[in-house]
Amino acid sequence: MIRLIQLATLSALAICCMVLAILSRDPLIYSRQSWALLALAIAILFTIALALRRQWIWAACFLLCAGISLNNEWQYQRQKARVLATSPDQLRPLGQRLIVGYRDPQMIEALVERQAIGGVFITAKNVRDHSPKEFRQWIDHLQSIQASNHLPPLWIACDQEGGPVDRLSPPLPKGPALSSFINTDGHYDAATINDWGHTQAQQLRSLGVNMNFSPVVDVPPPDSGSTTSNPLDRLSQISTRAISADPMLVGEVAAHYSLGLRTGAVLPVAKHFPGLGKVDTDTHQFPAHLDTSLAEWQKSDALPFAMLGQLGEHAPAVMIAHANFDAIDADTPSSVSQPVIALAREILGPDARLITDDINMVPTYYRKGGPGKSTQDALAAGADWVLISYMGETYYQVMDYLLSHSIK
Q1: How far is CA 351 from the centre of its chain?
Q2: Residue 62 parent element (H or E)
Q3: What CATH number belongs to 89-404?
Q4: pLDDT of residue 227
Q5: How far is CA 52 from the centre of its chain?
Q6: Helix (H, G, I), strand (E, B) or coil at 324
Q7: Where are the beta strands (DSSP E) in 152-288?
Q8: pLDDT digits over 123-152, tens only?
Q9: DSSP characters for 188-202?
Q10: Nearest CA-CA partner of 114 in 93, 130, 91, 134
Q11: Are 275 and 249 in contact, with CB atoms under 8 Å apart?
């Protein structure tokens, strides 16, 4: 019985170590990378202990776990070294189309100095240990480096929608959801919404932010409620963030809010084209499909985007989602699909500025060729920027791929 317990314990440990070793440089456990380090330490210790007891098969299993983890780290360090050894002249045309999140500020400073990125994504983890003044000084420092390289200002981007998604609160005040500006009878005050957009822009500018991934213009079904009980939608939960189930109302409110942001010198980014309101699977963690017919889509999901496109030079940029749009390109995530991105420009106008959702999400990170190939395809399809936000270190993998495949 004791031997069976020992065997079961070793088996469970070996499986856990193997999984963590394989995922040691993976977005799925990025927020728990200490687990991967623990697994590596356990693997090394058990390899030694089991070898001393001449249990060679088990020792080999744990040695394999340690080897996989160390190989992943070695591959990452090689990619990073190759990128940092590349001249700014080669990095610049590619890097200016990438907006990158971070955990280590020194990583971002090094990339800005090498002209290797076009923007920085900031979120709660980046601001929590700094006063607003300190953080703004650091952003100003990055912008001064960018200016010294004779490049346009960096895009400093964030998710500050209001309501349930306010990633910079604190230190900024928590803002209202755009849906809260609509009365129960469907009426709203345009000036109030516009003023809120302008006020929020001033708050964001106090931190150096000039791009906000808001408004959410996805149109949920009229009968949609909270999605918190949906096991396939743990993070997106669009129905809790949507403005309304009425596409005309969504477009109107989003337009007034966007114009307010623009008057405050912040570029709004409407999301998520072609629409996630009727997608019940979370693209952070799963492949997903928008299976609405094209005719229905044109009357519903497309309408807010078309209305925003009519703002012309004052129109927001637009974020392209990772859900496959079955009516247009069922086999490819929208963010890397040439037909879907062409449709976005048809709806929004040829001068629309388009950015992908985070390339670390499952549909693009685990696609054949990985995040590098997904970035290549997104840029080739017509996206202006690719977002690498949740795990900023993916930048090195992406840039190494782009450089080795001569992407211009």
Answers
A1: 23
A2: helix 56-84
A3: 3.20.20.300
A4: 44
A5: 47
A6: strand
A7: 155-158, 160-162, 165-166, 211-212, 267-273
A8: 999 999 899 999 999 999 999 999 999 999
A9: --HHHHHHHHHHHHH
A10: 91
A11: no
